[in-house]
Every structure is written in C-alpha cells, then in structure tokens.
Amino acid sequence: MNAAGKTKVTVPVMADLAARGEKPEYLLWVGSAGAFDDRYKHVTRAFVKILAFLNVDYAVLGTEESSSGDVARRAGNEMLFQMQALSNIDLFNRYGVKKILTCDPHAYNTFKNEYPDFGGHYEVIHHTRFLHDLIREGKLIPGKEVFGNYRVTYHDPCYLGRGNGEYETPRKLLGKLGVSLAEMPRNRSFALCCGAGGGQMFKEAEPGDKEIFIERTEEALSTGARIIVTACPYCMVMLTDGIKYKNREEEVKIYDIAEMATLSLGL
Amino acid sequence: MSKQVVFALSLLITLGVFAWTTARIVAFFRLTKPAFPVKDWGKRFKRVLTEVFGQSKMFRRPAVGLMHALVFWGFLVILFGSIEMVIDGLADTERFLAVLGPVYDVLIAFGDVFALVVLVAVIAFLIRRVAMDIPRFGGEEMKHTSHLDAILALSLIGLLMITLLGMNTAYVTYTALAGFEQKGLFPVSSLISSFLGSDLSVTTVYRVHEVNWWAHILLIFLFANILPYSKHFHVFMSVPNVFLSRLDPLGKLPNMPHITREIRAMLHPDTEGDSSGEPAELERFGVKDVEDITWKNYLDSLACTECGRCTAVCPARLTGKKLSPRKIIMDVRARMKEKGPGLIRKGKDFDDARSLLRDYVTEEELWACTTCNACARECPVNINHPVLIVDMRRYLVMEEASGPAGLNAVFSNIENNGAPWQYSREDRMLWAEDLYINA
Questions:
Q1: CB spacing of A212 vs B323 below 8 angstroms
Q2: A152: part of which helix (H) or strand (E)?
Q3: Right CATH number for A142-265 from 1.25.40, 3.40.50, 2.60.40, 1.10.275?
Q4: Does residue A243 register a pLDDT over 80?
C-alpha cells in the first residue's frame, strides 16, 4: 500500500507460476477484446481488481493467449476454429487448467459447449456468475447506495442469454448491487441482438434500412436509462457506438457488469 | 354391408396414397447426412410434453398462442371420435367406443364443445390472414400459393368442424325423435338441436346424419393426404421434429469430426498418423446443396409451418436486410422437391446445374446472420436455422474461400497473431499495466 491508499495489482501469468511449480485454481481467459479493445481493457481491469481484492488464486495466459476461435467458427472457417481449439486445449492441459473464468460470453460458450467435442472439459464460469456467487456467499459486500439514483437497463448478450440460458444471474447480481432495472421491451429470451455476433463485428453490414446496433441502442434509450449495463465485449462495442451515433454519450454511460461491481465496491 | 365396403375402400385408398407419400419422403431422407445420435429419451419426451402438448413456445405470443393451443387440444379430443368413426365404418357399428361408459361421455362432450371452439378459432385465423395486415404473413418467400395453402387448410378444418357439429346435432335430434338411447354427451349439439323444432321427420334427420358422417370422415381422409404437400404438414411433423430436437444449448454449433481428425494428424503426426487405415473420404465441407444437409435440416423443412415467428424476430430482417430464416427453411424443402427425385433416380452424382446455395439462398442472406439464435428460440417446432446458415457459410469459406473481405482479414489475423485484429501477441498484457486498487 502506498501513501494514497492504493495497492498496486500485479497480474499473475500462468508460465511464471508454472516455472515456480504453482498451479492456480482459475485460468482467467482475457480474450482478444479484453486485451486489445481500448474500451474493454477497462472491463478486464475492473474484474481483475476484484480478483486481486479477494486474493483469488488465478492467472492469465498473457502472451500465450490466442483466439478462442468463436468468430472463425461462426464465420464458417471450421478448419481455423479447430486449429485454435486444439492448440488451446493442448495449452490448457499443459498447465493443468480445470476452471476457466472469462468476461466474454462467446469464449464462455465455446469453451463450455464446443471444446468438449475435442476432449477439452473444463468448468467454465462467466464473470456474471462468479461475481453473483461471491456476493451471495458474503465474500463481496457491495455499497448499495451507489446506483440508487440512476435508471439502469440491462442488455442481454445473446451467447449468455439465448445461447446458454443465463438470464437471471446478471439481473440478480445487479439487484445485489442495489440496482432496480428498467427493462427494455425486448428482454431476456426476447432480447434483440446488438448486431455484432456471427462475425458481423468485423465486416460491413449487408444493405438494409438500419444498423442493428442503432435499433438496439434506441430501445435501450427508450427506457430512459442513464446507465446501460451489459456483459459482453461485442455488446459493449456496439452499444458504445450506438450512443455516440445518437449523440448521447455525455449523459448515458455503458458499463460492463464487472465495472458496476467495482464502482459499487469503491475499488 | 355396402356401406362397410365403400368405407373400407376409401380407407384403403387413403392409406395407400399416404404410404406412397411416406415412401417418397423416406427416400428423400435417405439422401441426407447424419446429424447427431438420438439419445436422452427422457429429455425428449419432456420436450414433447411441454412444447407440443403444453404448447409452451406458442404462448410466447399469448393471445394467438392460446387460440392455437385450443385448436391443438381440440384436435386431440376430436381425434378420439375420429378413431371411433373408423371403427364404426369398418365394423358397421354405431358409436362403438360407448362401451367406455363415463369416459366416453366426457371425451365426446369435450369433442363436441371443442368443435365449436376450433370453428371459432379457425374463423378468427382466416380473418387474420385475409383481412388483417399481419407483417409475418408477408415477405418475398410467402408466394400466392403459400397463402392459398393456408386458406385451404383453414377452410378444410372449418368444414371438418361444421360437419362434426352437423353430425352430432343430427344424432342428438334423431335419437330423441326415434326414441333411441343417446350414447355420449353433446353440450353444444344438444343446444343447437333444441332450436330445431320437433316437426322434423326421422328419415330426414337420419339422412342429414349420414351425409355429415360421410362428409366428415372423407374430409379427414382427404386432409390427411393433402397435408404432406402443404405447410400444414406440421400437424404430423411437429411431434417428431420436437422429439428429435437437438438438445445442446443453442449457442453450440455442431462439430465436423473429419476436420478434427485431419488437424490432430497435423498437430501430432507421430501419434495420430493415419492409423485407422481407412482411405480418407473426400467429403464436401459444409452445405452447398440438399445432398449435403442432415436429416434434421430436412425434417425441419417438413415441420415448418411458415408461421414467420423466426423472421419476425430476426435482427437482420428487422433492420431491412434480405435474410429471412423462414425462407431458408422453405428453400430446403423446395430444393429437395426439385432435386430429390433426380438424386434418387440417377444417384448422388446427379447434377441439374442448380444448387440450394445461390439458386435459392444467396450469399447476401447468409452473411447477414448474427447467429443470435432468436429465430431458433422462437420456432414453435424447434427448427434450428443458424446451424444450417453456418453450414452454408462453411461451404463458402472452406470450399470457395469466398467470405466477405472483413472476415478474411479476421482469419489471417487469427492465423498470424492469434487475435481477430492486427495486434501483436507481445502486446497482450498491456492492459495490465499501472493497475491499482483502492485498498
């Protein structure tokens, strides 16, 4: 701890731990967006702050991390996806990985549902579930007053919601953070996609009347929310663009659920 | 006696035509590829119970869902009476199942009430279709014939209910006039009968009963043989399609095991070499045409009711793109009808210089999909559209390398630096610099 009451966080790397003969309980899968996207880096940092605060036994792969292959698979490049999957599994097994934490619903879905086809069986935990359980078990005690005055809405990521049936955990978590949600007309299994999945994030949209992210942003804004919460790097990018497009970035904030937790904890 | 002969002949023709249709469809199924092993029967029965008999997915649109559920549950109880009619027709008996006593009374009473309920619902459906502007009934795949198909099916169901009520009313009136014992209870028909007056001749009422009886059973026979050529085939196919649903989470895409074998051999040449001894089969990657689809894709296409719930929630379609998940499923069925017979006659190398991809489904449609699974979540009979869309993308990317430019860049970035963007692997930890917590 330094004079300002701040403690420096050092992120443990799997290879360093292995060199010391240590094996952490969790692998934190940062994901390409979590490592490279300027906005989503802040989400990774927020989540890691909580891990550090609670002394969670984890490590990241660091420069050894690669793409999970989710985009490649959904864009039709099964060959590339399987190359990624098989080499990631080799890497995980080399480090004896049993539990994987991630903030990315796409990586979560791919590890949990698709890697078992290649012999990669792990307990995969999305950060919404992880944080929810920490609070439920009383290990994290959020400050309930932080969001009391804000109208908040939650955007369901497709690969957490429809893809894996996780509709209520993020909502319960937000409830524990003292948030009462103003739901969008299309929520939970009816939620509209942000428009980025299936490779859309990386290509021009097909001709149409409107961009999907604008349609969804308008729906989120229609709730009168000052904070739009989501739990996925793609959704974050799309909704952030949407708010800018609507010229509302001054009054409306977009947060990942991990950032909501750190704000609430004052970390 | 002659009635029995006529009935037996009509039944025989009905079953004969139906068997011919079934054989044709089975032959089409033989052209398809494996999808997944059918295990977990318990889970499957549960899905049939909740999603078919409980109509759970229909209730996602509560008002129209309830109307459909009433029609469906009505069909189930009315089916009991139809089975009895077949027995009566063959054995020349009258209301044979009345031996069941009170059970019979209750089932027949429900059938009588539901005949009216279904009639009202079908009239409401017809009004929705003809007079109201329901967006999901439109779209380029909804040709004039699709609407005629719907209207024909609804009208037939309406006629079935009218003849059922006519038959029941005549029966109630006839037994009262002739002083015979009435078998079964008929709340609605008794009410109608009470308005008919008592000066009817017994013979007339008897004839009215016969006419309605025959009209009802022959309409059922006709309907059963129109169904397989109609979107209303879902009456038969929804139960198997739900039972044979993929049980994996919607987020999961099916594996391509032959690619896994190739890559394993590449990554571990020493341990995973070609030890199986089987010659590597030259299998096409992904789906280009109907011979590449799985039996589940084809079953999906037969179970599709063209209701458009999928297209109505598709984010691409909602924002004006060309993609309509319903169209892709309808295209599979149409293309099988076009190419299937040639494949059966001339073998799997049959080529009519057309294909599902491009002649039916365009690349523009396929690349508009976000794989959000809203369509699959909504489909009342558990059709999985994204799985097929991705399979067609697999063909485009792996056989033709013809993906959109942006995605090709993603592929080479992942290959070169393990991320969809052009960042160096060495920079993967930059996010962690200068990180502090307030504690």
A1: no
A2: strand A152-154
A3: 3.40.50
A4: yes
B435/A78 touch (CB, cutoff 8 Å), yes or no: no
Q: Render the burial of A29-57: b for 16+ CB within 10 Å, e for the rest.
A: bbbbbbbbbeebbbbbbbbbbbbbbeebe
Alpha-carbon gap: B3 to the closest alpha carbon of chain A (Å): 55
Over the stretch B344-383, which tens digit does the pLDDT of each residue have? 999 989 999 999 999 999 999 999 999 999 999 999 999 9
Q: What is the pLDDT of residues B171-215, one digit of tens each?
A: 999 999 999 999 999 999 999 999 987 788 999 999 999 999 999
pLDDT tens per residue, range A91-128: 999 999 999 999 999 999 999 999 999 999 999 999 99
**A43 to chain B: closest CA residue:** B431
C-beta atoms of B251 and A164 within 8 A: yes
Compare CB distances from B322 to A109, A206, A267 and report the shortest one's residue. A206
Task: Give domain B2-30+61-243's CATH number out of 1.20.950, 3.20.20, 3.80.10, 3.40.50.
Answer: 1.20.950
Interaxial angle between packed helices B202-226 and B62-91, expressed in degrees from 0 to 180 and rounded to the nearest 10: 110
**Where along chain A do its domains lie?**
14-132, 142-265
Per DSSP bridges, beta strands B436-437 and A7-8 are antiparallel
pTM: 0.96
From A205, which residue of chain B is nearest by alpha-carbon distance?
B368
ipTM, two decimals: 0.96
